[in-house]
Specification:
alpha/beta; globular; 12 strands; nine-stranded mixed sheet
Length: about 250
């Protein structure tokens, strides 16, 4: 005899109620990483390198790269972090992260990593007017020069929500839209370092046009949503390019 439809609806409602009462703690969370740890990333060479992310509380996570494997256990908030031994500059292949699931990050380099931040002067890409633009773009293709451009999100509630991706220097990436294209200042800086050091160069690019310096100070919104989530990514140093929106305030 067919089961009455009303009875099926009752069973479905009961199941949903049980799942609701159990809450999110009953849902198995996959291991995840901060967005800077993604394909085509550049890691700081010759220094210890923190790698971090999120998982179920108490879950054991391993990170393997260049012949070394480090493990950590997620704390009560589901946060975990390992510290890699110093990597040699050059191509280091893939990084594998394992927990309940496995993540494989490909095309990883080790070299010099810098943070580039500021306002529109830093944000502008080579899509804008430049006297030697075409010549620069014709010569720009270099897989050892890369940028991670952080996406602005003023409603960012957690570092895990930061968005962005690594891209190698080439015409398409250096002339992408002004909202998410790679910084031309950061590119020129990277290009010169690449020539002098002959090693991969990676830049974490986090800039927003027309922002005053206060927005990038501790407590400022841009700082909270675009700088703090990048920490503690290992870097060699930082470059800054601020405009003149604070000029009339004459503040020091």
């Amino acid at each position: 005899m067919p089961v009455p439809r009303l009875h099926l609806l009752f069973k479905s409602a009961l199941l949903l109620s049980v799942l609701f009462l159990l809450g999110p703690s009953s849902v198995v969370a996959e291991v995840s990483l901060a967005k800077m740890f993604s394909d085509q990333m550049v890691l700081q060479a010759d220094a210890v390198v923190p790698v971090w992310g999120w998982a179920d509380a108490g879950e054991e996570v391993s990170v393997s790269i260049a012949g070394q494997t480090k493990t950590a256990k997620a704390d009560g908030k589901g946060e975990w972090q390992v510290t890699l031994d110093p990597l040699k500059a050059g191509e280091v292949g893939a990084m594998t992260v394992k927990g309940k699931n496995t993540i494989t990050i490909t095309d990883v380099l080790a070299g010099e990593v810098w943070l580039a931040s500021g306002q529109s002067n830093m944000h502008a890409n080579l899509g804008v007017r430049h006297p030697d633009k075409e010549k620069i773009l014709d010569e720009s293709d270099d897989p050892w020069v890369r940028q991670f451009t952080a996406v602005r999100n003023d409603k960012l509630a957690s570092p895990s929500e930061l968005a962005g991706l690594w891209r190698a220097a080439n015409r398409a990436n250096l002339t992408a839209s002004r909202m998410d294209g790679d910084s031309s200042v950061a590119y020129f800086f990277s290009r010169e370092l690449r020539k002098k050091l002959n090693r991969p160069i990676g830049v974490l690019h986090a800039s927003v046009g027309a922002t005053p310096i206060q927005a990038w100070s501790p407590g400022g919104r841009s700082y909270q949503t675009m700088i703090e989530p990048l920490a503690p990514f290992a870097i060699r140093g930082a470059i800054w390019y601020q405009g003149e929106s604070n000029l009339e305030r004459n503040q020091t």
